[in-house]
Amino acid sequence: xxxxxxxxxxxxxxxxxxxxxxxxxxxxxxxxxxxxxxxxxxxxxxxxxxxxxxxxxxxxxxxxxxxxxxxxxxxxxxxxxxxxxxxxxxxxxxxxxxxxxxxxxxxxxxxxxxxxxxxxxxxxxxxxxxxxxxxxxxxxxxxxxxxxxxxxxxxxxxxxxxxxxxxxxxxxxxxxxxxxxxxxxxxxxxxxxxxxxxxxxxxxxxxxxxxxxxxxxxxxxxxxxxxxxxxxxx
Length: 234
Fold this sequence. Notes:
It contains 7 helices and 6 strands. With 234 residues, the chain is an alpha+beta fold. The chain has a 6-stranded antiparallel beta sheet with strand order 1-2-3-6-5-4.
């Protein structure tokens, strides 16, 4: 495997899924053992997932919520046996709706072309405008971070955070010494009052909060973040 191929598969390195078979996993592991740049990027991806998982698990369940739900369910009236005619009508309606749903799903299923696949494989060459167009097509239209040098872009994903789909951009320097994963949070989807511009959160992976054109960028990074960003005159 070449570096370009490996970096498209890093999201699956530590996850049990069917996207990679055993030979592909073995080839990926061998490449990471001999390529320090890709190994650094894989480690950053791993640390990002751990930090994101910790943030989600830290959200406390409101006290008393479970008893309230159980009490509400206990007061609901029990259903009465269906009469044969009503049951038959309900089954007919269910089958009709199921058929309509299948027909709609087939009609709404998008076609995938070879050009679509090649475009995903070429993410390292995407500029800011192409990234924004791709995210809009994925249903998460945002203004991508302006302060990063997109020559350092590795891949663009859509992650799930607090029940919402959000853009996730990964940048890495050519020598692999600086890596950053950026979540772009929109005020239309989140209440962001506690995330102040310039905030730094300590931890194994450094985290910086940056406000940019109405969005909040949560930046998980290792190494020199400045090496991944644009120069003032660019």
